[in-house]
Amino acid sequence: MGENKAKLMRGGIDMLSFSKQLLTDVGIKDIVVSGNDYQVPDIIANGGPVAGIYSVLQHYRPAAILALPVDLPLMTASALSQLKIKGELSQKACFFQGHNIPLYLPNNGYVELFMSQAFAKNTPLAPGENPQGKKSGPSFKALLNQVPHTSVVPDKISHLFNTNTPEQWQQAKARFK
Question: How many Å apart are CA 25 and CA 174, to the nearest integer?
Fold first, then answer.
């Protein structure tokens, strides 16, 4: 993207605030932002988003996580609520069909086993120790291959429009104006 996606403006608010508001609207009371510049610093430097979840699990020990990236500007509270309810009822990892994130992830023995195995060989790195900035952690696909999961068919696929490039961000902006 070339800039911090959390600071991109959607309407009158930045994407981080937009994402937090979505989580609040679905009833999430304890919203935690992971990353070195936020509430929970990464335990594994450049470990990727699963390592961010690992960091939150190590720090807070929540019963479950509803992980929402800041690059889904067309996401709705209704869609997230559907995902959360399905995950809570099934007590399985739950995601939208064809998309590994957003993700409802119960903190259970399956998740703990995966995380302990995935990060056992990874020791915390100081910032700058991985100068290439390469993501070194496991993918969501690897996580979901090891934990019980279910998927939800989204009401609208457009809710999952991901903005990873300036061109995609411009396309999204045209949709929410």
Answer: 24
* pLDDT tens-digit series, residues 129-150: 444 555 678 999 999 999 999 9
Tens of pLDDT, residue by residue over 31-61, are 999 988 888 998 988 888 999 999 999 999 8
For the chain, the domains span 5-176
Nearest to 110 by CA among 98, 94, 93: 93
Check residues 121 and 124 and name the one with the higher pLDDT: 121
Query: What phi and psi, each to the nearest 5 degrees, are found at residue 162?
Result: -100, 135
CA distance 118 to 91: 22
Predicted confidence (pLDDT) at residue 9 exceeds the cutoff of 80: yes
Range 5-176 classified under CATH 3.30.559.30: no
Strands (E), 110-157: 149-152
pTM of the model: 0.88
| Residue 82, CA atoms < 13 Å, CB-side half-sphere | 15
H or E element at residue 83: helix 77-90
CB 152 within 8 A of CB 96: yes
Quick check: 86 and 104 in contact, CB under 8 A? yes
